[in-house]
Amino acid sequence: MKLSNLLSLIAVLLLFQCAPSEKTKESTSTDHQIAEMINQISADSIKSYVEHMVAFETRHSLSDTTSNTNGIGAARRWVASKFLQFRQQSNTNMTVELDPFVVEGGSSRVPYTVTMKNVLATQKGTDPDDDRVILISGHLDSRNSDPLDSIHAAPGANDDASGVAVVLELARILSQHQFPCTLVFMAVQGEEQGLLGARHMAVKMRESNVNLIAMLNNDIVGNSLASETGNKNDKTIRIFSEMIPAVESEEDAKNRSAMKSENDSHSRQLARYIKEIGESYIHDFTATVNMRPDRFLRGGDHTPFLQNGYTAVRFTEFNENYTQQHQNVREEGGIEYGDKVKFMDFGYAANVARINLATMASLAKAPAFPRNVAMQVNLGIITNLSWEAPANGPRAKGYNVLIRETYQPLWEKKIYVEDTKAELPYSKDNYFFAVQAVGEEGHLSQIVIPTPKRQ
């Protein structure tokens, strides 16, 4: 045997012997500009936003809309004024609007017809050929124990002034920079009355065929202390994502069944992406990929986006305190109830904002995802993947092929290639595979699972 052939055989055998789980996880490169933006996030700014929203006494969706000091109307206008302030300070190409929608009365949560309004700030991308959109959201409305109580104080500090504060803080910082794709910052109304504002926005985007690549829903992200147990966790944020997509074509369902990829929806891949990217920038703070679409008996504004076929996830604190959520302000049995500012952990909320910013900025700077990713299905050991370059966004200089064993929740190994195909000495029967584009500066696109292709 020739020496060159012998060396090639030895190299292949070594690759076979080195399973992904046996190799140290590769580090993810970071961007100095994104790191600087993350450093600008201020817990004090987030606190000031929350305090201002709580000062409106109630932000119930059926509360006063004409007062300048109380109710949902004043709260909506104040959030819009902050977006306008950020636009003026940065002189960015940002439009700000109160987007109205009519909710017909007669339901248990909306007894009479009312006009609600989402507050939107849209930062237009610099590349006219890049139609990608990334949206971050929190819900502006608050509530008491009685979902129809629109009169009494409902501070809603954590649920969900915390989420809106994260949106505002990201708008303040990201508006100072330019990105090729479009960023949307949204404070949504009607969440507590049935996800009404989110449904309005999701349907509107779907009807307009908006290329929304990621929806980040921040709901209850400012507390670190659990009710009942008293456990404290200020180091972890949960990311909820759906398993089997709420909407999929017959062909998509067939491919999912063939690949056995029930744990690899677009939203689940986004959750994995958030964890990897966020933890590469933020030390001593982690994201846990909670493999459920949401918590038991609860819902969130990412759900209507999932139901309209979009990729969406929910950020929620690891420990929730149920003496504060949906509770009338009172003291009872020695326990202080109500969603007050005093119970919040603003350092924790700031870290949640940081992981959101790392995700949004990284996606915005990255190429779009590779297209038509396919895997040859045969009885061989070698796995062959192929794909096409992204349709828009920054140019891809290469691609990561991701590998994990079938029982592993997270990707374990990356193999970088500059071609649009890869031949891998890993059996398709033992591993899952995916592909993501890598930009000129190392920014990573979303992750795409291959579809089966018979030889």
Structure description:
By secondary structure, this protein is α/β, with parallel strands linked by helices. It contains 10 helices and 17 strands. The protein has helices at 3-17, 32-40, 43-54, 71-90, 157-174, 196-207, 250-259, 266-281, 302-307, 346-365; strands spanning 94-103, 114-123, 132-139, 182-188, 211-218, 236-240, 286-290, 312-317, 330-332, 335-337, 371-377, 383-388, 396-405, 413-417, 421-424, 431-439, 451-454. The strands form 4 sheets. Strands 1-2-4-3-5-8-6-7 form an 8-stranded mixed β-sheet, with helices on both faces. Helix 3 crosses helix 5 (157-174). The longest helix has 20 residues, at 71-90. The chain is globular, with a radius of gyration of 23 Å. The relative contact order is 0.15.
Topology:
Blueprint: H1 3-17, H2 32-40, H3 43-54, H4 71-90, E1 94-103, E2 114-123, E3 132-139, H5 157-174, E4 182-188, H6 196-207, E5 211-218, E6 236-240, H7 250-259, H8 266-281, E7 286-290, H9 302-307, E8 312-317, E9 330-332, E10 335-337, H10 346-365, E11 371-377, E12 383-388, E13 396-405, E14 413-417, E15 421-424, E16 431-439, E17 451-454
Parallel strand pairs: 3-4, 3-5, 5-8, 6-7, 11-17
Antiparallel strand pairs: 1-2, 2-4, 6-8, 9-10, 11-12, 12-15, 13-14, 13-16
Helix pairs in contact: 2-10, 3-5, 3-10, 4-5, 5-10, 8-10
